[in-house]
Amino acid sequence: MTPKKPGHLLEIIDEDVQSVNAFATRLKKLSNSSKAKDASGDGNNQSKRRKLQDGEVNVEEKEPHHDIMEGISKEDFRQYHKAKDRVRNFYKEQHEMQTVAYNLQARVNYKTKTRAKMTIWEALCRLSKLIDDSDPDTELSQIDHAIQTAEAIRKDGKPRWMQLVGLVHDLGKILYFFDSEGQWDVVGDTFPIGCQFAKENIFHEFFEGNPDNSHPIYSTKYGMYEPKCGLNSILISWGHDEYMYYIAKSQSTLDEKALAMIRYHSFYPWHREGAYRYLMNEKDYQLLEVVQDFNKYDLYSKSTQKYDLNELEPYYKELIDEYFPNKYVEF
Ligand SMILES: [Fe+2]
Ligand SMILES: [Fe+2]
């Protein structure tokens, strides 16, 4: 599975994978200078949560009041220190296995084949068999979570495109039934690959087992990236977010904001903990607000309430048709 020559693999990926193409140049540059580079340089980041700078968004202060938050205590969610063994075990494996080499190979795999062709609704139904091992907040199936999220957005009077994002944001988890290697390359919080793993990542200690953590370039603060290069230019750990982002980008009419919600919704160290600001460009600050707005519905709609799928099916099928012009989507 591990590619021996990532440079060669990059060449066979389509040009529309912009971020991957950008790596080809950077990897070449870095491989020339890697021996001279001091791995201990500015990568020695001791931050817990640093002060926000001008123009940055403070999640706690900026979060507007919405119905979704009524009667909800944030402390009831993402309590990883109380997490069950399945969650801890999941993150140990995920943090050790998500490497640059794996991520390049995963993107090659994605671009070079179609795993299935089906309607969005059929794909959602397949997810009814999946319970996410990384999630400490729900043991409901994924189709229930999709409907809960979409219904919460709908009840708050948000636009139809955002309701659709709620419905499909986790649809990439269907990857689990195709060619994933487990749940570690499908679910869980996401984080940049190819640069230092920020302390704000949950279960940060598990990165010690990741080979990139002692790599002379990848273990430094910026790793293979330039300061403020923009999130679109970095490799985010492979999983359902990236996978669904590529599907929605190429096969739906969803716009940039909607795509950002899909792509970054699991990037908790960034949108919730304030990490990785040094990789953001100006546009990313706008997208951050959008992703934070979406996150409320993704996270706080998790409850034991189950909706009647038969009742809601006609509404959501019509919504799907509005944004996915082709009935059958390539997964
Ligand atoms: Fe997700
Ligand atoms: Fe979700």
Automatic annotation (TrEMBL):
<keyword id="KW-0963">Cytoplasm</keyword>
<comment type="pathway">
    <text>Polyol metabolism; myo-inositol degradation into D-glucuronate; D-glucuronate from myo-inositol: step 1/1.</text>
</comment>
<dbReference type="GO" id="GO:0005737">
    <property type="term" value="C:cytoplasm"/>
</dbReference>
<feature type="binding site">
    <location>
        <begin position="188"/>
        <end position="189"/>
    </location>
    <ligand>
        <name>substrate</name>
    </ligand>
</feature>
<keyword id="KW-0560">Oxidoreductase</keyword>
<feature type="binding site">
    <location>
        <begin position="132"/>
        <end position="134"/>
    </location>
    <ligand>
        <name>substrate</name>
    </ligand>
</feature>
<feature type="binding site">
    <location>
        <position position="240"/>
    </location>
    <ligand>
        <name>Fe cation</name>
    </ligand>
</feature>
<dbReference type="GO" id="GO:0050113">
    <property type="term" value="F:inositol oxygenase activity"/>
</dbReference>
<feature type="binding site">
    <location>
        <position position="145"/>
    </location>
    <ligand>
        <name>Fe cation</name>
    </ligand>
</feature>
<dbReference type="InterPro" id="IPR007828">
    <property type="entry name" value="Inositol_oxygenase"/>
</dbReference>
<feature type="binding site">
    <location>
        <position position="169"/>
    </location>
    <ligand>
        <name>Fe cation</name>
    </ligand>
</feature>
<feature type="region of interest" description="Disordered">
    <location>
        <begin position="30"/>
        <end position="68"/>
    </location>
</feature>
<dbReference type="Pfam" id="PF05153">
    <property type="entry name" value="MIOX"/>
</dbReference>
<feature type="binding site">
    <location>
        <position position="298"/>
    </location>
    <ligand>
        <name>Fe cation</name>
    </ligand>
</feature>
<keyword id="KW-0479">Metal-binding</keyword>
<feature type="binding site">
    <location>
        <position position="173"/>
    </location>
    <ligand>
        <name>substrate</name>
    </ligand>
</feature>
<feature type="binding site">
    <location>
        <position position="170"/>
    </location>
    <ligand>
        <name>Fe cation</name>
    </ligand>
</feature>
<protein>
    <recommendedName>
        <fullName>Inositol oxygenase</fullName>
        <ecNumber>1.13.99.1</ecNumber>
    </recommendedName>
</protein>
<dbReference type="GO" id="GO:0005506">
    <property type="term" value="F:iron ion binding"/>
</dbReference>
<feature type="binding site">
    <location>
        <position position="78"/>
    </location>
    <ligand>
        <name>substrate</name>
    </ligand>
</feature>
<comment type="similarity">
    <text>Belongs to the myo-inositol oxygenase family.</text>
</comment>
<feature type="compositionally biased region" description="Basic and acidic residues">
    <location>
        <begin position="59"/>
        <end position="68"/>
    </location>
</feature>
<feature type="binding site">
    <location>
        <position position="265"/>
    </location>
    <ligand>
        <name>Fe cation</name>
    </ligand>
</feature>
<feature type="binding site">
    <location>
        <begin position="265"/>
        <end position="266"/>
    </location>
    <ligand>
        <name>substrate</name>
    </ligand>
</feature>
<keyword id="KW-0408">Iron</keyword>
<dbReference type="GO" id="GO:0019310">
    <property type="term" value="P:inositol catabolic process"/>
</dbReference>
